[in-house]
Automatic annotation (TrEMBL), chains A, B:
Domain ATP-grasp: 487-523
The protein's name: acetate--CoA ligase (ADP-forming)
Source organism: Natronorubrum halalkaliphilum
SUPFAM superfamilies (alphabetical): Glutathione synthetase ATP-binding domain-like (SSF56059), NAD(P)-binding Rossmann-fold domains (SSF51735), Succinyl-CoA synthetase domains (SSF52210)
Signal peptide: none
Length: 698, 698
């Protein structure tokens, strides 16, 4: 039993603002509750003694104790009503009333107060600006919508009330059932994370689905959803995907890793299966709610029609699944059971005159193959095939083998009766082969999610105090940008940097250069100059004897470029052998929802032109760090493609983890770019650094 | 009237093999024709006088003249029957009988003979192994399938008979109508190109759709479809997409540009809109068959529900369309017409209590905006909204403004009646906002196709005779592989190559090197050694005085690597300045269906690891050549990204066209790779060449 169980399983529900006025929301809710709810309904309205045949109370204090209160009073009195609910000891509240933050100004202030009252009385509030909630086992429809839900094992939350109304109307036609339904409204108190947690504990919820426009506390959501998805699949439509690009991002990394990428990474790390449309949402949910997990990725396709069989094979090719390779025994058995013209290799084409028995034999043999994890039955209508009989056979064979089976019984009216039979036994029928395979693909995706191990972030032994002191420089300098002069920040976190020093006179420059083997690299150090090379602020391969002049030149160019630039000195750095090394970039941009978003890519054109980057929400463990490196398209370059010497990928993996620790330890770091991090055969070196610090946070 | 008009509009149809035997195909066809066909049906069967109440004839010669004969006799007598049809002067034949090439052996021989008879009598044959054909205006159902089609403006061909049966059953439920339907069967005589041509001339066909597993003569198809799609959209499902990778490809380019890429390029060049599933096929066809073209890419979204409005906006963002920016006047008009809480910016949210009038006003104002090319009406069910009334309003506003409008009236049963009304006026309703937008997107795609200009391939002034002589070397050498020794082939076609010569003794090597400014590059020339660098067969930056020794060394290494290798000599080539240049690859692989498939990409990792290439079926004009270059992801590198000097892209464009001409002029060239073609600021130079020649074709 979860913390919110009384929200969905109340014995008594008060409707604060109940009325019998035609067209009023307070009437619609009361009617919906009166007509189906198994518990007691208590109308609250100071100006009535009775509403719709139910005894009405003037206020919460005079009413019998209730587990849940649904509030539909007008905005000006809503806060008072909720305070009364708190005083009466009711802990669960659904606020239908609108006119809060969504209207701005006064409404936003009202929402702030609502949050305070909730904290004061420890109230679990859904809404405000909610359509209401439903729970089918006890018949509770505490919404003002025209549709009631059928009972089923899908729990459904939505940030849009209209989305619920639209979906229920359609789902009822399709005979798709729900356990709980929640219209989240403004999410002032309870949000998606609370319901994911609650339904994760609910044995009657097989799948959690949702429509969200935003996730308020991404980090908490990821943590909770990760646990929940060990058992219960979560499928979400997160809309507003394409607006992401509009977000202004102040640093280079930020510009690439926009907010939609944070959602993409965060939801992926959370173990959420993402749907891009209403259709996908239910195509996935139908498979996930009624079928067992496949024990292998091999799919058998059984059909009576070549063309649709090829289409199904294409769809398998597009998915994470693959066509099963049958064992010799399976081939022999199929050959014995099928006519000569049939194709006994996968896809099995039992040909146009296949009757129920032949279809059943083919499916039975295929499901018995150890290489088959799941099956799709695809059929075109023929004179010899009754779809409802075929449905029964499919159900029987599916249960015999306890493997997931979906169907694509193509056609119109004649498929309907069969669909009904199949649905009862948890087998989704799809109109299109591609959609049938997408259902199995969602099952396979959920298996992957369940089986993945997410290792805890390693805690490296670092010098956190020294790092804090370095970051404090920003406060001391009254400039929130730190650059190459703060490379010791990386050293404090165990990230290798080249030998060198920042100096502020040409003599010292020569001394430092002489202490370094070979030629040196010299770079102007100034928070005001970002593109050092462009203005001639970088010199490569400088011999010791040229260092003095080079110093003067670099400083002169910087001054010339921007006379009032703050110049912190010139960096003298050892020359690295870049012939055998690869430039990479590791960056971080703090996302308002998900927190520190790490970015990895190869330097230069790979990030800027090919946009070949990977992102993760920090903190991350070793496995996720390695995945970041392996999933960029250009990864083979690091791994030693085309005769190159492989880079020390493990050192890159470790550096990404150390940076993950740094940005997690210091929320004051708003943005950070190590660009480049040079990866050679014998390790990595961070060559340059830029970061922005929120000095108030330090 | 097309060449095949009598196939779809016959006055008399003979059924050769007509029978009244229960369950026989010959009976099913006769029944289907008898029950609906407006013309005369003539059964042919030597053992009956009458079949199903119709007068039966012994053979074609004794029967009245017929426009079309449908053949259902058994395989052993089918050829004789078709010969009789030819003798009788009937020119159009549908062969239902199976047992041809699809069964191999004897069947394949039968199909060869069928082709001969067709040529002898000039017969237009559909099939064999066909389900039959339909044409709805005259009620002709000459198939043995259980379903008849409703009348409509979609003409439909399919390489799978079962696909037709499945689609018709579903389409009848959805009340989707067809003009002509053809089951292509084995395509021995008539194939997809013939029907595309025929329906392109048919004023009653608004959209051509098809399910194909292959296209037999890709080049002819492209040529025909290009013309047809000036007026009539073609939407195809081409299955077998994911098998492409399995095709063996012998050369480097071939391995990358597999057969699926040829279909992708060929269908794109043909102007075909490709669908990947049955659902997409009809989502597109429904929009294309009933709506006008949009005159701009701006979409207005009108909704009563925020969430679905955001989803629709996402879908527009994913498409080639964009959300329209309303004029100030539109904003003013919407503000005046909508309540305060409504959103008058796009998407227009008329909010939950929007009635028919408000919806109508919003749509009217939006469609009146000059920036709006099309609109989506998205609605959640509410108490104040009757969907059938809303449908009428949408129809009215759409016709007033003559702009395309699609709807997404979300919900189940309540949407059905509205759908029916909308359908009658050509407006498709979709269950899902994403699908509604995909319908508009198909319309916009078709506009693009109609508006594109495909310039004729330029005929460069080349030395074709010299090229032929060079290719003949392959015959003379009895080796179908030519290499760098044939660089003069490129010169004959006006493609620049570096100064240099192939020599076969070290003294001559030194002489050539001395005649070239600066250092030289030396490469072993041998058809047996592909990866010259790997075996030490290439030396870069060789000074004149070292050329003699380098010659000996390169040859020794080659001998050492492969003692029996044919060594044609050593190439001495001028050193190019590669600092400011970019390596590109231009290749060609001859596809069995589409002919010469050109490939372009940047060299090295871009092709091999990032697979960043573009392909086109040759011959191509200047625009297509330029598109090939611009559509690779790394194109900005050539155009001068990141401070590089831009390469001479026009020279690359010209080289691609010249190679297009070369491979078109010489079908004997099976594969060709110019790798690299170095593109610098002042032009291009082809550095290396490999090609394979079919010496029999020369």
């Amino acid at each position: 039993m979860g913390r919110l169980s009384a929200l969905f399983e109340p014995e008594t529900v008060a409707v604060v603002g109940a009325t019998d006025r035609e067209g009023a929301v307070g009437r619609a809710i009361l009617e919906n509750l009166r007509d189906g709810f198994a518990g007691e309904v208590v109308p609250i309205n100071p100006s009535r003694d009775e509403v719709l045949g139910l005894e009405c109370y003037a206020d919460m204090s005079s009413a019998p104790p209730t587990d849940l209160a649904v509030v539909v009073v007008p905005p000006p009195v809503v806060l008072e009503a909720i305070r009364e609910i708190g005083e009466a000891g009711t802990k669960h509240v659904v606020v239908i009333t609108a006119g809060f933050s969504e209207t701005g100004g006064e409404g936003a202030e009202r929402e702030r107060e609502l949050r305070e009252i909730a904290a004061e009385y420890d109230l679990n509030i859904v809404g405000p600006n909610s359509l209401g909630i439903m729970s089918t086992p006890n018949g509770m429809n505490a919404t003002f919508g025209p549709e009631n839900a059928r009972e089923g094992s899908i729990s459904f939350m939505s940030q849009s009330g209209a989305f619920i109304t639209a979906v229920l109307d359609w789902a009822n036609e399709q005979e798709i059932g729900f356990q709980d339904v929640v219209s989240l409204g403004n999410k002032t108190v309870l949000d998606e994370t609370d319901f994911v947690e609650e339904w994760g504990d609910d044995p009657d919820t097989d799948v959690i689905i949702g429509y969200l426009e935003g996730i308020d506390h991404g980090d908490e959501f990821v943590e909770t959803a990760r646990e929940v998805t060990d058992d219960t699949p979560i499928v979400l439509v997160k809309s507003g995907r394409t607006d992401a690009g509009a977000q202004a991002a102040s640093s280079h990394t930020g510009a690439i890793a926009g907010s939609e990428r944070a959602y993409e990474a965060g939801l992926e790390q959370a173990g959420v299966i993402r749907a891009n449309s209403v259709q996908e949402l239910f195509d996935y949910a139908r498979a996930l709610s009624g079928l067992p997990e496949p024990d292998s990725e091999g799919v058998a396709v059984v059909t009576n029609a070549g063309g649709p069989g090829v289409l199904t094979t294409d769809a398998v090719g597009d998915s994470r699944l693959r066509m099963a390779q049958f064992t010799d025994e399976t081939i022999d058995d199929l050959t014995a059971a099928m006519p000569d013209e049939a194709n006994v290799y996968n896809p099995i084409d039992a040909i146009g005159d296949a009757d129920i028995e032949r279809f059943g034999d083919a499916l039975d043999i295929a499901l018995g193959d150890p290489n088959v994890g799941s099956a799709v039955v695809v059929s075109a209508p023929t004179a010899v095939l009754e779809y409802d009989k075929l449905a029964e056979t499919v159900i029987e064979k599916r249960e015999d083998h306890d493997k997931p089976v979906v169907t694509c019984l193509m056609g119109g009216q004649r498929a309907r009766a069969a669909e009904e039979v199949l649905r009862e036994f948890g087998i989704p029928n799809y109109f299109d082969p591609a959609r049938a395979v997408s259902g199995l693909d969602a099952l396979a995706r959920f298996s992957e999610i369940r089986e993945r191990t997410i290792d805890d972030p390693e805690r490296f032994d670092v010098d956190r105090e020294r790092a804090r002191e370095i970051l404090d420089r920003a406060t001391r300098r009254d400039d929130n940008r730190l650059g190459v002069e703060s490379m010791d920040l990386l050293e404090a976190y165990g990230i290798p940097t080249p030998e060198g020093e920042i100096v502020d006179d040409p003599d010292r420059a020569r001394d430092v250069a002489e202490s370094i083997d070979g030629d040196v690299v010299m770079k102007i150090v100034s928070p005001d100059i970002s593109h050092k090379s462009d203005i001639g602020g970088v010199k490569v391969g400088v011999a010791d004897e040229d260092v003095y002049d080079a110093y003067e030149d670099v400083v002169a160019r910087a001054r010339n470029y921007q006379p009032d630039a703050t110049i912190l000195g010139v960096q003298i750095q050892e020359m690295l052998d870049l012939e055998t090394a690869t430039e990479t970039i590791v960056g971080m941009n703090r996302d308002p929802q998900f927190g520190p978003l790490l970015l990895f890519g190869l330097g230069g054109i790979f990030v800027e032109i090919l946009e070949d980057t990977s992102v993760r929400v920090a903190p991350i463990g070793e496995g996720e760090a390695r995945d970041m490196i392996d999933e960029i398209r250009a990864a083979p370059l690091l791994r030693g493609a085309r005769g190159r010497e492989p880079a020390d990928v493990e050192a890159v993996v470790e550096t990404v983890q150390r940076l993950s620790q740094l940005v997690t330890d210091f929320p004051a770091i708003l943005e950070l770019d190590v660009n480049p991090l040079v990866a050679g055969p014998d390790g990595v070196q961070a060559i340059d650094l830029r970061l922005t610090v929120d000095t108030e946070e330090l």
